[in-house]
């Protein structure tokens, strides 16, 4: 595996752990994606655009899911 791929995989794994942590703290176990992006971007220094690409990877792999809450989409964990 190339060095850049290793860095990207580590960043995605770290983002997944952050999502798990934040969802476990949330009352309804789901959280608004822009809020996750803001918090994690500030913490990690990764741009919001890159984080949204990482969210797409996690969604595609089935490691997180989109949940409709009211009129808004939220991020949650699959059961």
In short:
With 79 residues, the protein is an alpha+beta fold.
Describe this structure in words.
By secondary structure, the chain is an alpha+beta fold. The chain has a single domain, classed as Orthogonal Bundle (Arc Repressor Mutant, subunit A). The chain has helices spanning 3-25, 33-44, 48-60; strands spanning 30-31, 65-69, 72-76. It has a three-stranded antiparallel beta sheet with strand order 1-3-2. Helix 1 crosses helix 3 (48-60). The model has no long low-confidence stretch (mean pLDDT 93).
What is the domain tally?
1
Structural class: alpha+beta
Number of helices, where a helix is a run of at least 4 consecutive DSSP H or I residues: 3
CATH architecture group name: Orthogonal Bundle
The oligomerization state is single chain
What is the element string, with H for helices and E for strands? HEHHEE
Q: If you compute it from the alpha carbons, what radius of gyration comes out, rounded to the nearest whole angstrom? A: 12 Å
Strand order of the largest sheet: 1-3-2
Describe the largest sheet.
Answer: 3 strands, antiparallel
CATH class: Mainly Alpha
N-end to C-end Cα span: 31 Å
CATH topology: Arc Repressor Mutant, subunit A
Number of strands: 3
Q: Would you tell me the overall average pLDDT?
A: 93
What does the secondary structure layout of this molecule look like, with pairings?
Layout: H1 3-25, E1 30-31, H2 33-44, H3 48-60, E2 65-69, E3 72-76
Antiparallel strand pairs: 1-3, 2-3
Helix pairs in contact: 1-3
